[in-house]
């Protein structure tokens, strides 16, 4: 519990640092007065940067990091596979396929009947629809295939199919389209504007609450499917719920932030080793918080070059994550 | 005795136009290039040696060519280099820029094949492929080698890339590769001056020289127009996803903005390519700009509404609120096709937008007001 509290404090501190530090220098006192609502004499562009750019970015990092880490943990437990992560069921590649279709094939907009979406909303909708479509397919197979390993393989196959479709689309696309798609694929927490925040935060938080409700069956699943069934857990039903929750979390995060690598895979391991427990009652909250911490640190590293540019998020997450994982493994190997 | 014979040999080598790259400038007539830094041409008896300096490695040569007129016999001794029999009659072109260039030089009939057809805008190419006069050789990065061999071209024109690891199988088929490195020239006029080299290759030297003379004089005349006027602050391009790619101060666009009398926030930047910046940096440095010139690609003309739907933050830019946003649709206009060899046309657009009084009668060619 103490560790969770410590992590929660760390999240808050890092959030403040994320709002204070960005690519351009804004004096801390000015940032504070903007946050407090005293805007007299402060440049409007700074107000915009703090309130509409850095603040939503920090909130997004907290939620997205937590969401990815939580779904990683749940999938690792449910499928008893330490290498499972939110990308493994092809959900993020489904999102990628949706985005590729819009960016590379439809020229950046979707028209369906009387509804025409363009710009960022179109990308968002495409990613979400793509992720949801893959999730439905997996869900369908989950009813047919009993073995978890087989289901994982089905998921991986779907991932391959969507990536090959993306490759084809890229091959026939314009260079601007390819560039936009590559940039999307690098991931970023800056995609959620304050106007979108209620949607993003709402979906993520509700899904996380559902995740917390799954703690008990998750603990039972740790013992193996047979034992879990003996304990009165309906394995298939739990698995389906898990799919819905993790699918929702991955879909919403990928839609807004692009496919973010590594956090979902690595953070649960670090959390497990630091807490030295497999009890999801503490493990899940700790994993969520640690995911947030990781995302915030990565977001901070992205703006490190300052005025001269940014580093893409997906270049930072493994760079930070891999050494941490190796360190944790070495330290706790006994 | 021995020493003197070595000296004599050395002198012969030096005067014999070529052999070694350094010595090629010492014999023959060097063709003067006023702006192009990567090109070195020396005319000798019966042939011309063209040396392209390596754009990415210091003191290295990218490629050396020996141009021998097709109607005269091949001289017995030739300096090292890829031999090209000029004028070229059947070439395979890999870029839309060079397809348009050949059209400017009225040498369309010498295009035997193209790669990356989907990117090529020149009408004559699209039509030629439809009629079967021009062969579509597939994707530029992995062309259909058999088709290329089949049409017996006398040269392949393609753009070199940094550290791309060569041209793969294309290097094995014994067809001269002309590496069009002009896009690595450091100045717009340097890039445009390469037209003179292409003129030599296609046997239209005089046309090419006079084309460049027009570009040169009109570019410099345009530049003078704005020399003494106030410099409007100018923002450029727009965000792609989470990154705003801004052309560096040394890039062609950066230099042309300076020549057009613009106050470009990244003018002091040292990059010759672009810089990837986050939104907040661009807003901080360019938020107060008077004019905003952006490039986009799409089927339709961009509107203010669409711009806002891409990023709400564009509202923070003064140029946006003052309706001073000009867009160039690179898909619908010939921006990329023409501007490398006709920088004067693009400069006219810049000046018309930035200093309307200096060029009151010019009609915008690439850019349009975003409404």
Tell me what you see in this structure.
The complex is a heterodimer of chains A (334) and B (371). Chain A is mainly α. Helices cover 74% and strands 2% of the residues of chain A. Chain A has helices at 2-20, 28-36, 44-78, 91-105, 119-144, 148-171, 175-185, 197-213, 215-222, 225-230, 235-257, 263-275, 280-302, 313-331; strands at 109-112, 115-118. Chain A has a two-stranded antiparallel ribbon with strand order 1-2. In chain A, strand 1 and strand 2 form a beta hairpin. Chain A is globular. Chain A starts with a helix and ends with a helix. The relative contact order of chain A is 0.17. The model of chain B is unreliable at 11-25 (pLDDT under 50). A 5-stranded mixed β-sheet of chain B has the order 1-2-3-4-5. The relative contact order of chain B is 0.10. With 371 residues, chain B is an alpha/beta fold. In chain B, helix 7 (205-225) runs parallel beside helix 13 (343-354). Chain B starts with a helix and ends with a strand. Chains A and B meet through helix 3, helix 5 and helix 7 of A and strand 14, helix 9 and helix 10 of B.
List the helices and strands and how they pair.
The complex is a heterodimer of chains A (334) and B (371).
Chain A: H1 2-20, H2 28-36, H3 44-78, H4 91-105, E1 109-112, E2 115-118, H5 119-144, H6 148-171, H7 175-185, H8 197-213, H9 215-222, H10 225-230, H11 235-257, H12 263-275, H13 280-302, H14 313-331
Antiparallel strand pairs in A: 1-2
Helix pairs in contact in A: 1-3, 1-13, 3-8, 3-11, 3-12, 3-13, 4-5, 4-6, 4-7, 4-11, 5-6, 5-11, 8-11, 12-13, 12-14, 13-14
Chain B: H1 2-15, E1 29-31, E2 39-44, E3 47-53, E4 61-69, E5 82-86, E6 91-93, H2 96-104, E7 111-114, H3 123-131, E8 135-136, H4 145-150, E9 155-158, E10 177-179, H5 188-193, H6 195-201, H7 205-225, E11 234-236, E12 239-240, E13 243-247, H8 252-259, E14 274-277, H9 279-286, E15 291-296, H10 304-310, H11 318-321, E16 325-329, H12 335-338, H13 343-354, E17 367-369
Parallel strand pairs in B: 4-5, 6-7, 6-9, 7-8, 9-10, 11-15, 15-16
Antiparallel strand pairs in B: 1-2, 2-3, 3-4, 12-13, 13-14, 16-17
Helix pairs in contact in B: 6-7, 7-13
């Amino acid at each position: 519990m103490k560790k969770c509290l410590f992590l929660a404090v760390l999240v808050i501190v890092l959030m403040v640092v994320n709002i204070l530090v960005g690519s351009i220098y804004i004096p801390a006192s000015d940032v504070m007065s903007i946050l407090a609502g005293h805007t007299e004499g402060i440049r409007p562009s700074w107000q915009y940067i703090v309130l509409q750019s850095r603040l939503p970015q920090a909130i997004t990092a907290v939620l997205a990091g937590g969401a990815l880490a939580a779904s990683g943990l749940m999938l690792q437990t449910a499928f008893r596979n330490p290498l499972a992560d939110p990308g493994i069921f092809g959900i993020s590649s489904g999102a990628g396929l949706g985005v590729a279709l819009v960016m590379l094939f439809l020229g950046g907009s979707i028209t369906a009947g009387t509804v025409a979406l363009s710009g960022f909303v179109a990308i968002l909708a495409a990613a979400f629809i793509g992720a949801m479509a893959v999730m439905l397919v997996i869900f369908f197979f989950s009813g047919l295939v009993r073995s978890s390993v087989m289901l994982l393989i089905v998921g991986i196959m779907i991932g391959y199919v969507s990536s090959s479709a993306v490759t084809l689309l890229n091959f026939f696309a314009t260079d601007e389209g390819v560039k936009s798609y590559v940039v999307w694929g690098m991931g970023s927490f800056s995609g959620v504007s304050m106007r979108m925040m209620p949607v993003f935060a709402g979906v993520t938080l509700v899904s996380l609450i559902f995740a917390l409700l799954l703690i008990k069956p998750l603990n039972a699943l740790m013992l193996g499917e047979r034992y879990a069934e003996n304990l009165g857990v309906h394995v298939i039903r739990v698995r389906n719920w898990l799919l819905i929750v993790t699918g929702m979390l991955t879909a919403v995060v990928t839609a807004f932030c692009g496919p973010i690598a590594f956090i979902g895979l690595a953070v649960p391991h670090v959390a497990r080793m630091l807490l030295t427990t497999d009890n999801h009652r503490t493990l899940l909250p700790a994993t969520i918080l640690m995911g947030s911490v990781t995302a915030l640190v990565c977001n901070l590293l992205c703006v490190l070059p300052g005025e001269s540019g940014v580093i893409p998020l997906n270049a930072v997450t493994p760079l930070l994550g891999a050494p941490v994982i190796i360190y944790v493994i070495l330290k706790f190997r006994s | 005795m021995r020493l003197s014979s070595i000296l004599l040999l050395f002198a012969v080598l030096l005067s014999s136009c070529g052999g070694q790259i350094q010595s090629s400038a010492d014999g023959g007539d060097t063709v003067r290039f006023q702006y192009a830094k990567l090109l070195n041409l020396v005319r000798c008896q019966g042939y011309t040696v063209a040396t392209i300096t390596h754009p990415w490695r210091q003191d290295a040569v990218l490629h050396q060519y020996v141009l021998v007129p097709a109607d005269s016999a091949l001289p017995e001794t030739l300096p090292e280099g890829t031999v090209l029999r000029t004028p070229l009659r059947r070439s395979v072109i890999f870029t839309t820029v060079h397809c348009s260039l050949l059209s400017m030089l009225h040498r369309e009939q010498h295009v035997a094949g193209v790669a990356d057809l989907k990117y090529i805008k020149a009408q004559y190419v699209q039509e030629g492929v439809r009629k079967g006069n021009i062969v579509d050789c597939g994707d530029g990065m992995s062309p259909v080698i058999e088709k290329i061999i089949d049409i017996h071209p006398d040269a392949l024109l393609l753009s070199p890339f940094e550290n791309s690891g060569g041209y793969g199988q294309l290097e094995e088929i014994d067809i001269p590769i002309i590496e069009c490195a002009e896009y690595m020239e450091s100045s717009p006029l340097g890039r445009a001056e390469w037209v003179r080299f292409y003129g030599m290759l296609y046997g239209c030297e005089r046309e090419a020289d006079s084309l460049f003379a027009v570009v040169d004089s009109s570019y410099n005349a345009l530049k003078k127009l704005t020399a003494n006027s106030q410099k409007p602050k100018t923002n450029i391009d727009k965000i792609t996803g989470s990154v705003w790619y801004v052309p560096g101060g040394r890039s062609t666009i950066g230099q042309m903005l300076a020549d057009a009398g613009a106050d470009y926030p990244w003018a002091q930047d040292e990059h010759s390519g672009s810089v990837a910046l986050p939104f907040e940096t661009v807003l901080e440095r360019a938020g107060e700009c008077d004019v905003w010139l952006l490039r986009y690609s799409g089927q339709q003309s961009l509107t203010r509404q669409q711009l806002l739907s891409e990023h709400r933050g564009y509202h923070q830019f003064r140029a946006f609120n003052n309706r001073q946003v000009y867009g160039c649709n690179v898909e619908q206009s010939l921006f990329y096709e023409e501007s490398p060899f006709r920088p004067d046309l693009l400069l006219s657009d810049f000046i018309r937008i930035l200093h309307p009084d200096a060029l009151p009668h010019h009609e915008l060619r690439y850019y349009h007001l975003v409404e």
